[in-house]
Specification:
Elements: E1 7-11, E2 17-19, H1 22-28, E3 33-37, E4 46-50, H2 51-57, H3 69-80, E5 82-85, E6 92-94, H4 97-103, E7 108-113, E8 118-121, H5 123-145
């Protein structure tokens, strides 16, 4: 199984190009990426899913069974509003302008491994999120020790 681990900060040029970290590229093994807005209501970042994994997780639609309102909403949010990109031979991808603006990216991108997928964050926002997570875990540990 492909797993993405670690944190890497790479540059973002004016054309929206950035290099996918080498260890992430190795795990992609030539597969493309599906990019979408984060599902988090509290944080704006880009989710990057290996195309094969994204495709394998998709639901089979039966034209004889209408989709529920929830399934329709999921399709519009998570399937229709995506971008597909493939790293070039140097490992660069071009991020769509709307995703750059959504994530608040300017001249750098923080790549955060999340095992089956990875995230692209504005670097300072990524650091704040990591610190939030550390504090939450410390508070949980302190509460369970009490």
């Amino acid at each position: 199984m492909t797993q993405f681990r670690g944190k890497f900060i790479n540059g973002l040029d004016k054309k929206g190009r950035c290099s996918v970290p080498a260890s992430f590229r190795a795990r992609l093994a030539g597969d493309g990426l599906v990019l979408r807005r984060s599902v988090s209501p509290d944080h704006c970042y880009i989710e990057a899913w290996p195309m094969a994994q994204f495709d394998a997780a998709s639901r089979d639609a039966n034209p004889l069974n209408p989709l529920s309102p929830e399934q329709n909403a999921e399709d519009y949010a998570y399937v229709v509003d995506v971008a597909e990109v493939t790293p070039d031979p140097e490992g660069r991808i071009i991020l769509p302008r709307d995703l750059i603006e959504y994530a608040g990216l300017s001249d750098g991108v923080a790549f955060l491994g999340r095992l089956n997928w990875f995230e692209l964050w504005e670097p300072a926002a990524a650091e704040r999120r990591i610190e939030e997570a550390r504090r939450a875990l410390a508070a949980r540990a302190a509460a369970s020790a009490a």
